[in-house]
Amino acid sequence: KDVLEIPTISNGSWERYDHETQKPVELLRKAILSSTDKGDLVLDPFGGSGSTFAVAEAYERKWIGIEKETYYCDIISERLSDSEHINRIRSEVDTRESQKRRKKLRGE
User: Fold this and answer.
1) Can you tell me the distance from the alpha carbon of 46 to that of 38, in angstroms, rounded to the nearest whole number?
2) Stretch 81-86: mean pLDDT, rounded?
3) Which of 17, 33, 50, 103 lies most in the core, judged by the most C-beta atoms within 10 Å?
4) Which residue has the higher pLDDT, 96 or 38?
């Protein structure tokens, strides 16, 4: 398939943080794992809610980021210090469940 089917983040989602343009973990996982190896450096010049950094942490990538708003820096810090959140990303359990739901909806 040449199409990435990744749902948007709903308001009640486990990965939802307070940011208008937050990217789904599943999207960033695909981008990071397809373009880096363990120990590689990931750059995100628009840190936002820290999704890129959280995925990089979960998959043992180094990262460097920029975020000019102190409010979002606090969210990033909180997110990265939450080991349960990082472990949940690493487990990919939510991605597998989401894929199953999408297949069921399509009748596969």
Assistant:
1) 22
2) 97
3) 50
4) 38
Looking at the DSSP assignment, which residues form a beta bridge with residue 91? none
Backbone region of residue 48 per phi and psi (left: phi > 0; alpha: psi in -120 to 50; beta: other values): left
Strands 41-44 and 62-65: parallel
Q: Which residue pairs, CB below 8 angstroms and at least 24 apart, start in 91-98?
A: 92/29, 94/14, 94/15, 94/25, 94/26, 95/25, 95/26, 95/29, 98/7, 98/26
CA atoms within 13 A on the CB side of 25: 26
Question: Which 8-state DSSP code applies to residue 18?
Answer: S
Strands (E), the chain: 41-44, 62-65
- Would you say residue 1 has pLDDT above 70? no
- The whole-model pTM stands at 0.89
Amino acid at residue number 30: K
Tokens at 90, concatenated = 């690493």
- CA-only gyration radius of the chain, Å: 14
Question: pLDDT > 90: what percent of the chain?
Answer: 73
